[in-house]
Amino acid sequence: MDREPKNRAERNNMEQNTMFPKREERVKLESGRRNRPRQTRPPQPQQPESLVERVQGFVLESISSIRRSIAQRTQQQGQPPQGQRPQSQRPQGQRRPVQQHEWIPDETFMERMERLWHERKGDLPLANRGIPKQVFGGVGVIILILILYFSFAFPNGTEVMIDGTRIGILEERNVSAEDIITIVEEQLVTSVGATVQINETITTEPIHISSKDQKDVSTEEYLFPKVRNLVTYQVDAASLYIDGKKEFSVATEEQLNSILEEIQSPYLSEGVDLEVSFVETVKVTKEFVDQEEIIATVDALALLQTVRMVTGEYVVQQGDALYNIAVNNNTTVEEILSLNPGMTIDTGIYVGEVLNIMIAEPKLSVKTIELQEYTTIEPKEYEYQYDSSIASGQKQVLQQGRAGQKVSVIQVTRINGFVVSEEEISKEIITEPITEIIVEGTG
Questions:
Q1: How far apart are CA 178 and CA 199, in angstroms?
Q2: DSSP assignment of 38-88
Q3: Long-range contact list for 294-302, CB < 8 A, 24+ apart?
Q4: What gap in Å lies between CA 5 and CA 108, rounded to an integer?
Q5: Which of 284, 212, 211 is nearest to 247 (CA)?
Q6: Short-list 263, 281, 196, CA closest to 232
Q7: Of the candidates 239, 263, 259, 260, which has an alpha carbon nearest to the alpha carbon of residue 249?
Q8: pLDDT top residue among 329 and 249
Q9: Of the four, 8, 198, 245, 413, which is 20 to 30 A from 97 by CA?
Q10: pLDDT exceeding 90 applies to what percent of the chain?
């Protein structure tokens, strides 16, 4: 452990040994520094210099030039540069005179050695050396560069552009294009009553406002309404596509669904369970459209209810007649006869017969599927046997037959109210039919 010095002399010796190590220790330290491998840094990629970095480089170069000028001026005056010892002027062999140094009371050994070290090197305060004119020149150049930068290059405003064309300048520097778009769209929503989307591209750019730019400088209260009047926009709407083709757009999706329900309502029956759909592929899409494309719900409903006359098929039902068929389908008996070659007014029709008629086909055809349950007769079957003991041509009923009863589920498909198909999808036998056996004579 380090012990405390007993007196002032011992303390000075300990401080001197700390500041000036022995020769053997200095040799070890210097040899260790020489033998230590030199570390190299990997090459760094070159980055383009910014304006601030270029200004900093110019300032550092100016300071280096000033220091070189000071060193050259000092050498010209016969004084050694800073950090070098002056050449001795005494004759060879003559001992160096002992210098008398001023003793400062309450000065420690370390403070005194530091002071003597600076006196030996010839360091003087800056005020005693004199400041060369180059220093004042370099400082002036730096100040001039800073003044020019803040006067002609420093951004102090924001340029607002629509599709690359300037429409104004704001003195604020923290205004972004996203802020302007948000504010303008909110103002449009208030006036239109629906979500909007601006068609043009709004951008901002930091700019230094020069004297020629002063005419374009404006406030937010003036510039934002100007932007709103210059841009075009699309409105959030609901569009109807039929078989991939766009028919129209209305304001909201709720309005469009209400129109489709009104198209289906004439083919619905109260208390009847129906599966309702459209024959065509119908798609409702939310999208942004021009405000001129949006039509009223009344006009949209009328557009879907327009029809065109096409040739279709009609399946004759129980109780049908040509006149009734013509009235129900907005046609005439003469037109039905012309579409069915060989048919006359006296020709009868039967249930299940398919007739060609002119039918009105709307833009949207409503398809309904209904399940109907019927109780019907399951007919009896016949079995014939032959007996030679019975005279030929005679018949005897060996077993009396009887018809059965069944419950059938029929799927009835209609398009725009007309039956296009009936299909039995299931049946349940309630009473099994009994086969009737008949014996015929062959003798």
A1: 14
A2: PP-PPPPPP----HHHHHHHHHHHHHHHHHHHHHHHHHHTT-PPTTSPPPP
A3: 294/235, 294/237, 294/249, 294/250, 294/251, 295/248, 295/249, 295/250, 296/250, 297/250, 297/255, 297/258, 297/259, 299/248, 300/240, 300/248, 300/250, 300/255, 300/256, 300/259, 301/259, 301/262, 301/263
A4: 14
A5: 284
A6: 196
A7: 239
A8: 249
A9: 8
A10: 25
Domain 367-443: which CATH number of 3.30.450.40, 1.10.8.60, 2.20.230.10, 2.60.40.650 = 2.20.230.10
In whole angstroms, give the CA distance from residue 434 to residue 440.
19
How large is the average pLDDT for residues 297-324? 87
CB contact at 8 A, 312 and 360: no
- Cβ distance 297 to 254 under 8 Å? no
User: How many CA atoms within 13 Å lie on the side-chain side of 18?
Assistant: 10
Give me the pLDDT at residue 82, please.
53
Amino acid at 196: V
Instruction: Tell me the pLDDT tens digit for each residue of 318-328.
Output: 888 888 888 88
Residue type, 82: Q
Q: Are 392 and 441 in contact (CB under 8 A)?
A: yes
CB 86 within 8 A of CB 122: yes
Q: Phi and psi dihedrals of 303, rounded to 5?
A: -65, -40
Segments making up each domain of the chain, as ranges? 106-154, 157-231, 236-306, 307-362, 367-443
Residues found in the chain: 443
Residue carrying structure tokens 């030996």: 120
